[in-house]
Structures are given as C-alpha cells and as structure tokens.
Amino acid sequence: MNTKDRFLSVAPMIDWTDRHCRFFHRLMSPRARLYTEMIATGAILYGDAARHLDFDAAEHPVALQLGGNEPLALAQAARVGRRWGYDEINLNCGCPSDRVQRGAFGACLMADPALVADCVKAMQDAVDVPVTVKHRIGLDYEQSYDFVRDFVGTLYAAGCRTFIVHARNAVLKGLSPKENREIPPLRYEVAGWLKRDFPDAAIVLNGGLADAGQALAAMRPAGGLALDGVMIGREAYHRPRILSELTALLWPGTPMPSDDDVVQAMAAYARRQVAAGVPLRAVARHMLGLVGAREGARRWRRTLSDSRLLAGNDPALIERAWAELQAAPQRRAA
Predict the structure, then answer these.
(1) What does the angle CA 223 – CA 110 – CA 132 come to, to the nearest 5 degrees?
(2) Which helix (H) or strand (E) holds 160?
(3) How far apart are CA 269 and CA 142, in angstroms?
(4) What is the pLDDT of residue 247?
(5) Marked catalytic residue, from 95, 108, 119, 160
(6) CA nearest to 115, candidates 99, 100, 104, 128
(7) Residue 1 is inside which H or E element, if any?
(8) Side-chain-facing half-sphere of 177: CA atoms under 13 Å
(9) DSSP secondary-structure letter at 252?
C-alpha cells in the first residue's frame, strides 16, 4: 500500500470542493488525489445525481465521499458513483456538524465500529475500487489511543486498507464545526501509532497542515514508519499553490503550469461551463487565492467576487482581472 498515488490529496470540504474547485486544483497539481464534498446517500439515490456527481475527466484520480449509516443505501450509492467513473469511494466518519449528527452519520459513526464495518463490507461488495474511511482520532474529550486503534482494527478486519486520519478529536456537543477544526488539539503522533500497529494499511494524515515543509515532515516522523500521504484542507483552498509546492517535493521534475497558464485554462473551462448553463460565479469563486499576496491581489479578488460584474456571466472577466493584476505594478511605478 506504500504507493505514491496517496502521497498528496485535497480534503473533501462542504461547499468548497465541488467539480469546478477540483478542476482548478488539478491545475495546481497533476498528481494530487481529489475528493468530492461529502454527499449524503439520499442526494444520490433520490435527488439529482448528475448535479452532485458530474465531473471533468481531468480530475482523475478523484474520489467520491459519501455520508450515511445504512449499509444497503451506501452500497447502492457507491455503485452509482462507480458507474459515474469515480476511482475511490470514501466513507465520512469525521464530520461533527449538527446536521450530520441529526442524521446519525459522520463522526457519530465512530461510536459504532461494528456498523461502520458492515457499511464498508457492503460497499466493498458493490464496487471494484478501493473503499476508504476518513475519521477522527477520538470523540469528545476521550484521549485514549485504544479507542481509535480499536475502531481502525475493526474496519481493518472488515477489509478496509486505507484510513485518512484527521488528527483531532470530534467534540459532538458544544463546539461548532469551525471550532472542531481549531480547538481540539492536533495529535499527529496518533497517525504514526496507527501506522505502527497496521503497517500494511495506508495511513494518510489530515488536519492543520498549512506549510509544505511541515506536511512533509509530518509524513515522515522521526523514529517511526513513514505515513503514506498527507491530505491538505483549507490551506489548499486559500493558498492553492501549496499543492504545487508539495508536488515539486514529492514528485521532483513534475511540470507545473504558471499562473498565466492556469488563468488561461480556467478561462477556457469557464467558457465551456457558461455555455452549458453554469453561472460564472460558480467557477470564479474558487480562484480567489491563486495570486496570494502579490501586487494587485486585492483587486483580483474584488473583481472576481463583484456580484455586478459576475452578473454579466462573461468568462472574459477572468482574463480581464488577470490583465489588471499584471498591470498593477506598472501603474504604481508610474
């Protein structure tokens, strides 16, 4: 399982990692594994499946993350996802939101590893691609390693071989989802302990990774077995070039598009999407972090988030914003 295909991935993030975001992130890294937002089984089985599942071929390798707690429904949704072309089916056992808790899935599932094992087995029987699990390291304020070790062990016995470890506890009562990403302490060492105890499983580390060097160091702990990869979350959205930085470190020599190349590719993509009825704002909103703090970045962000300009639905707005940013230093120098 120590293969390079899991070295780098982008976390599933609700309202963020839709297909337009994933197309953009693919430009940032030709090797990263991409994940959908968490999609509830009901949305696939009884809703507009195409709206949730459509993706561009450029996104491969791309994984479908499911939310649910019923083995049969998860198996059916996994089967649909596989027919759609997804390379992996991932089960969310880490989201602590109130809505997810009301549905008794997400992080709640960690309290019932036997049920999760049944879900995993049902999905494995339904598809011919890897079925993986993304989970926390504990619930509420329980710090015992035994809890997460036994959870992973139960799923390992059911045949799961890839675990994405968000290295914080999930506090189910009293903390918001945002607070759950910030207040419970990060304990990266727990992922290392899991790799020690399940050496032939792929263990991917997630949580608070905001620097390429830090992520690489966390992946290769001193005195222990190397982890199989890192999953970058919000930093990949706010500063997407971290994906390029990590790609250069993990796969030296990989060709990387310039910012100008990215802008041109996204403008062409936006033209195709707008022609298909997608509003420009759905594409442009994911590009705000491309230019970081460089000269003219504020204007770039302002132009691509201006509701009046976006209402025109003209993909040329992306190229206009880029031209304005390029001209910014000359205007200031003059």
Answers:
(1) 65
(2) none
(3) 47
(4) 97
(5) 95
(6) 104
(7) none
(8) 12
(9) T
Strand, helix or coil at 244? helix
Among residues 235, 101, 245, the alpha carbon closest in space to that of 181 is found at 235
User: Would you call 95 a catalytic residue per the annotation?
Assistant: yes
Burial of 90 (0-12, 13-18, 19+ CB in 10 A): buried
Beta strands of 113-173 (E only): which ranges? 131-135, 138-139, 162-166, 169-170
The pLDDT value given to residue 327 = 87
Cis ω for the linkage preceding 71 (within 30 of 0): no
Please give the DSSP secondary-structure letter assigned to residue 292: T
Type of residue numbered 173: K
* Residue 63: both structure tokens together: 């994984």
* Helix orientation angle between 113-126 and 71-84, rounded to the nearest 10 degrees: 40
pLDDT at 223 over 80: no
The helix (H) or strand (E) run that includes residue 281 is: helix 280-284
* pTM beyond 0.85: yes
Mean pLDDT of the chain: 94
- Residue partners of 239: CB distance under 8 A and separation at least 6: 289, 292
3-class secondary structure, 5 = helix
47: tokens are 């809703």
How many residues appear in the chain? 334
**In the block, residue with structure tokens 């263990």:** 203
Mean pLDDT on 98-116: 88
